[in-house]
Amino acid sequence: MLRRTLRYALGCATCLWLMPPGSCHSAAPALVTLQPPSSALVGSLTRDPAASPTPGDAEMLRLLRRRVKYVFVLFQENRSFDSHFGTFPGADGLYSQPAARTPGFRQRMVDTDGSVTSISPFLITPTLLDPSGAPVPLYPADTDSTDHTHDGINNSLDLDSGTMLARNDRYALDEEGLTTQDGRIVSLATGLPAAKPPSEKQKQRAELVMAHLDCDTTPFLWRFADRFVLFDNFYQTIIGPSSPNAVAMIAGQAGETQWALHPFLAGLPMLDDPPPYAGSLRDGASLKPPFGTHGASAAAPGPNHTYATLPLSFMGRDIAQTIKADQNPEFDLLDVQDDIRTIASARVRPTGWGWYQEGYDHEPTDPDGAASHATYITHHNGPQYFGYIGDNTRLASNLHGLADFYADVAAHRLPAKGGVFYVRGGYGNNDGLVPVDPSPAVRAAFAGSDDHPGYSDTQIAESLLADEVDAIAASPYWAESAIIIAYDETDGLYDHRSPHIRERDRYGNPLAAGPRIPAIVISPFARAHVVSHEYAEHSSVIKFIDALFGLTPLSELPDERKGRAAGLREFGQPDLGPADGRDSEAGSLFSAFDPARLQGSAPPLPASYAMIPDSEIRQLPHDDGQGCRALEIVPTDYVNGKLIDPPPADFNPRPGTSPGIPSYGHWTP
Residue 259 contacts by C-beta under 8 Å, 6 or more apart in sequence? Predict the structure, then answer.
């Protein structure tokens, strides 16, 4: 019998996961805490954060600056909050309110015979029963990617033009190339009734977009979320794919202020995945961005992004000297001249930083002495879109491969005064892990480590996170660290919450912010067993870093203010650009930290509390596919021991990779 119980700091006192969906509803409290596990170690370390008052932001910041010097952003790919944590107890999830009050919980789709049916969220279980009752394996760690284009996500959200609240009822239809118009289902391409029914593949993709996972498939993620702080109100910046949100992690935008200042510049704001800026013609070959075998061609790069980022702010009082290494300053620094003067005049010391991404340089999977870039995903490298980084010999040296991260941490090569370090996976993995699925096609296609559906196995991806956390925890950096596990965007997977729309693109379509994504904060000074409802975006990561290192918020730098003023003047939009300002609605992530630990009146969480043994990391499936039992957590879609949302009878998690699955007893690669 699983023993984990749930209690609220405020609100409904009865365990939601023990009751039928919708039987209890109350306003979300500021924090939801889970009762500590039975472990004596954990029990001695955890405490109810409601037991002591939370100091104001100024005092929290003072305490954080005393304790935290290193920020690690473990930056993953393409999952909605509901797809990973929609049934996490205590979070605002799929069963936190009645189905009728959950936007998009039941939505229309078209069957292969042309009839209109419906689909609701469901768990991808390890097996599906064939007509005879025999189990057919589904291997939920490997799923195809779904539509996460700018237009596709907007279609899925189905935002009310008056309230700008999302109905979230066209996720399934979008995968079939359909939308709704005056209540009718019509083709996205023509606006007319579809000429033919969807194919089996289209229908299975329509089902897939509504699927979710739980602790049986992602026990490491749920372990981190359970032991530390899960944010259930964290949103991607741009309604769109990976590149704009990779940029947003360091800029809080994807070119909106540059667009406002130069309205006719093509490619801004960035809505898709162009290759990054290829560098000045003056660049030597060593400064050109790598384009691997899976990368986009360098023949058609995106525009040079010329607005402020954290790497610009990180130059601090040395900025005037640092920018002298820029090989194309008149172009790269055109739109940040006043920002440069402001950063210099603030006299803040430079902040160390690094961007570590798999395949950027030589990896253990490469031949000796040769960097193949075979696992490098060009458009995931946010800093490369900025000429003032890529054209600058001093700044380009902050970009590294994934193996370099482990080497630098193990050798204690990070700056002694602290800094900010971003870590990303890629198309492969350095541990030699292969999916559990025996299909050769699946094993060849799903070796990736960054959790992106379509090429990453989500257990290999959480192994990467565990590797990264273990490396930090085993180092001296743990004692002064804040680790932020974050995602770039949703992959177009269903989430029931409505985003906060504050920006529109050049065509008047919603641009920012986008749907919810997972986020977890791990630290020796973190609260334990907490779900935070603090509103957050990628700009919240920036806001936390701004505050910790004494940086002027990007949105308050003078050239970004000019861009915002131009946005109001040119487009009638007052809120273009980053949301890291001191008066923005985006939170600062301070709710993740326990004042008592920061003050020293409660012990910090030890490194062992965050670590996962290497033997567990290397053994797939993790926890033998019984992660929920190992964690003693009952997901909220189990009522009286019974799963209430099994997959559809014809469900296939990989319609593009394994067409025809399930094939009832044998694989058809």
Answer: 265, 268, 269, 506, 576
- Give the other-Cβ count within 10 Å of 299's Cβ: 8
Write the pLDDT tens digit of every residue in 583-634: 899 999 999 999 999 999 999 999 999 999 999 999 999 999 999 999 999 9
More confident of the two residues 581 and 367: 581
Contact 185, 178 (CB under 8 A): yes
Helix, strand, or coil (residue 536): strand
Q: Which domains does the chain have, with CATH numbers?
A: 72-88+214-509+517-617 (3.40.720)
Cβ(444)–Cβ(53) under 8 Å? no
State both tokens at 245: 């949100």
For residue 272, CA distances in Å to 100, 247, 456, 516 come to: 34, 12, 20, 19
Residue 293 confidence (pLDDT): 59
Best CA proximity match to 54, nearest among 588, 663, 596: 596
Q: State if pTM tops 0.85.
A: yes
CA dihedral (348, 350, 547, 542) in degrees, to 10, reads 140
User: In this prediction, what percent of the chain has a pLDDT beyond 90?
Assistant: 80
Lookup: tokens for 39: 């472990």
The tokens describing 193, both together, are 């009734």
Listing DSSP states for 143-182 in one string gives ------SHHHHHHHH-B-TTT--B----HHHHHTTEEEET
Phi, psi dihedrals of residue 233, rounded to the nearest 5°: -140, 40
For position 454, what pLDDT does the model report?
A: 95
